[in-house]
Every structure is written in C-alpha cells, then in structure tokens.
Amino acid sequence: MMKHRYSAWIMASVLGLAAFSSHAEVDLKDFAFNVDGTFSAAAVPAGVDVSGFDVVTGLGIVTATITGTGDHFFGAWFDHEIDQAINSPFNETGWATGAPVAGQSWEIDEPGWGSSTDGSAGVPYIGDIYWNIENSYSPSYPGDVFLDNQVFYDWNDDQTLTPPDDVSMAMGWDFTLAVGEQAFIELVLMTDAPPVGGFYLTQADDTSPDQIFFSGSLTRSSIPAPEPSVLLLFGAGLLGLGSIRRRKHTA
C-alpha cells in the first residue's frame, strides 16, 4: 500500500518550523485491526471495545474477547504523530523494551509510503508494516503472521532504515483456544510513563518531551456458564413452545 505525504508536513520540515513545548501534541493518523484474518482499516470490528480509547489522540485502552475452539490471531496497528504540526512526522523513531511472550509478535516501521532516504541495501525504503498486519492470517496466507519483530526492516529488499523517520507500531498474538476457553486481549497506549516491567513498544520524537508507550496482554479463561436465572428462563421458553405445539396438534 502506498500513501501520500502531505505537502504541509514537507513544507514545515523544509522551513524548519520546529518548536519545543512542555507537553507534546499526540494525534492518531490511522489505525487498523486484524481478527482471524479479517482486516478492518480505520474501523472497529465486532468484539473489540474502544470505549476507553480516544480515537483522536490514539491513547487509552482497547480490549477484545475472542472465542471459538481452534487457532486465532488478533493484531492491531496504530500510526501516531507527535507534534506533527510544528516539526513534521519525519523525525521520529521507536524501539522495543523487554521480551515478547510466546505467540506475541510486533513491528515498528515506516507506515508504508516510503522514506526520503534509501535503506541499508541502497534502494528506496518502503515500510511493510501495513502489508504485514493486513495479510496476517488472511485467506491467502492462512495461519501465517508477518509482523517481523524488528524496527525499520523491509523484508522485500532485505534492508533496514536508520531513523529518524515516520513511525507506526503494531502488535499481535496468534494462539489456540481449547473447548470452552476464551481469550481476553488488552492494549494500552499512553504517554504518562512506561509500563513497569513486561514487553512494550516506544515511539519518540527527537524534539518533543513526550513518548508513546504501547503494551498489551492476552489472558485465557473458561467461558462462564450461564446464570441459573437465564437457564430457568430458557427452560420456561421451551415449555411454552411445547404447550403451543400441543394445542395446535389437538385443535
């Protein structure tokens, strides 16, 4: 996927319109989800809760509950900008801290329109993160996860890019659920402070004080049994249907 750079950002970069503030402005430019190979671009799929998430800043908590026996994948991609209005988005970098758990994948990359500089192989660099999140577990690649667990790496040309540049981040899990089991996924994106322990991603701007911290977790649990009252209502409904059928039969 190729995107277009915005002329205002390029002009700001050329003119050097950079300013340092005590609190950076964070904006969410784009986002996407992939649930079991179904890709949702700039949309929230069923089963994903964003009530605790600000779609303007891209900060907050996203949760999802996945059910169904068998193999699954859940992935999310976020393209944030830090102080883009005053210093363009092309001076940002990112890194990973800690070690991901089994089944967890991630990536930090230029979001897909191409860098203004060549990569380590000496050819134009185009980030592949968007393609990777879009095509993981897709019908064309069932069971395959393409997030590469690297920072600024282009698999197609086997090259890396030395930041700063534009940054986007993705995180995902592939997992298997047993009969009667469900998975609860929580994504946390914040600027206040890094998580205490665990694995997380960081996005930073070289002239701004704030950083974006992206962490997540997956927990498995048994699917709760229906409440007794629900079972009683269901049983009463079946009895009622049986009574109606008997009356029709004897009429």
From TrEMBL:
Keywords recorded for this protein, A-Z: Signal
Signal peptide stretch: 1-24
Pfam families: PEP-CTERM
Keyword Signal appears in the UniProt entry: yes
Domain Ice-binding protein C-terminal positions: 224-247
Coiled coil residues, start to end: none
Biological source species: endosymbiont of Escarpia spicata
InterPro entries registered for this protein in UniProt: Ice-binding_C
Name by which UniProt lists this protein: Ice-binding protein C-terminal domain-containing protein
